[in-house]
Amino acid sequence: MNQRATQTETAVNSTIRLTAAQAVVRYLAALRTEHGEALFGGVFAIFGHGNVAGIGEALYRHRDELPTYRAHNEQAMAHSAIAYAKAHMRRRMMAVTTSIGPGATNLVTAAALAHVNRLPVLLLPGDIFVSRAPDPVLQQVEDGHDGGVSANDALKAVSRYFDRIVHPAQLLSALPRAIRVLTDAALCGPVTLALPQDVQAMAYDYPASFFEPPVVEFHAPAPIPREIERAAAMLREAREPMIVSGGGVLYGLATDALRAFAHKHGVPVAETQAGKGALAWDDALNAGGIGVTGGSAANELAHASDCVLAVGTRLQDFTTGSNTLFTQARLVAINANPFDALKQNAVAVQADARVALDALSAALGDWRASPQWTTRAHRLANEWRETVAHVTNMPVADGSLPREADVIGAVQRSDDESPANDIVVCAAGTLPADLQKLWRTGKPGGYHVEYGYSCMGYEIAGGLGVKLARPEREVIVIVGDGSYLMMNSELASSVMLGAKLIVVLLDNRGFGCINRLQQACGGAPFNNLIDDCKQGALGAPEIDFAMHARALGALSEQVAGIDELQAAMKRARAADRSYLISIDTDPARPTEEGGWWWEVAVPEVSDRAAVVVAREGYERAVKARGF
């Protein structure tokens, strides 16, 4: 700190002269949760012009109380930060800083992911000079009709709060607003504070009290009594109700309340991708995953239910089977976010999941679902668990490649405590479908799959964020070769940071999931599996993923089958650093059990007979939906 700042702070203790960048970092470093932990676990940074001289200098000053983590890709480091917040159930988070230009625009995909999943991350991209003295600067996006446009404007559509700081004094209002959005259940999502590089370097006399902020309180609305009574009245009329548990149950720390409600009132529970783990996999009322990627028990119950209680879920198309799964039921929605609570013409309860469930249970008193319904739910849930055990323990036929279900079974068999101790991380493709159906999760947080935005490339970066948040747990990243090739650089970061990951790479030689969808819609296999892609004279490359992982500093091996995979998993669990296991898998064989219809528009006209047939099936399904 310069001499003037020291004298002002110690002698007067009323103002502190800091640059805008120093003020941002000092403020973030001072924030504490009610448990005394730092709200921000650190800052991921890739420095360049636009942030290295300002934010970089400030981060160096506070490197002990606010760690800075070096990454290799801006999108990936934002994914890591988002995963860190999700692993902490949104109670702790991280910031990321980039240069201007491509460093900033690389954040757009990650910001969209956080926006869709209602997850907090603070984005601090550098921005162009406010003074415009050196205009245009390197990497500046010039607009012919708006002189105020910069590349960071691309982040406005995917930020829950956006501010461009054009004077250091603006931080006095912008930073508290940003923190409120990041810690409010109804508002939660990405926040962008664009920081022009000349403003970062400007000094201002800040009130000393600004850097002694109060303990951060996490805000979630309490239920309005009349909304609880309306919801209770609807449930009292129901004989065959169903709970759909979404991510809001986990983020609202409502898992105990959910379990108590379900068992007191005899109501089965189905889990969305974000809500999986809210109940233990072997709970008698856990019917498993719901929807397009769900299991048969949850989907049968949902389609027969007369009232669905949706708790903390966005009700996106995979959950609702493109709005066909529970159209026969009346819907009650508990959600802190009013936008989500009002979907599907639901009776809305805008509230924190835990408080709302407790209040609704009290209002219902001794009401219970029909005994026959609860018994049916127990039976179906148990039958689904038996199906999971069967599907994940089937022998692989001689000469056949294993499928995803075989890999999932081997991973969990490699440690008897896997359901309680392991955290699985995945995103996009067929793997989330099989994991939602088949992964056994013993406690909240053991299932970390990004399927709100279905973003390929999240897996390894997300795994790094989870490991930084939960270093005591085994973090297992299951990823396909397509996603791995999109974004693998943070495997090197995991080695550098001593944040051990186990990466199980399923090599089906292309985009197997979308190849199957292509054919299901009548299309010819084209441009998805490598063999179906345009190639030059040398043909497709033979990619050695194990060798590639070793080049990034990880341990690795290629295995030939499921028995070898299970043995390799034991070696990986015992290893002292990130460990990649590559296994060839079958791109054509998904798990047939479970599932539900998903609307994918098929061309209305085509000269391909298979497309015409697929269109006829699509039209029948749309007609059956009724709208």
Automatic annotation (TrEMBL):
The keyword Transcription does not apply. Residues 428-582 form the Thiamine pyrophosphate enzyme TPP-binding domain. Keywords: Hydrolase, Thiamine pyrophosphate. Residues 228-360 form the Thiamine pyrophosphate enzyme central domain. Residues 20-139 form the Thiamine pyrophosphate enzyme N-terminal TPP-binding domain. Its EC number is 3.7.1.22. It comes from the Bacteria. NCBIfam families: myo_inos_iolD (TIGR04377). This is 3D-(3,5/4)-trihydroxycyclohexane-1,2-dione acylhydrolase (Decyclizing).
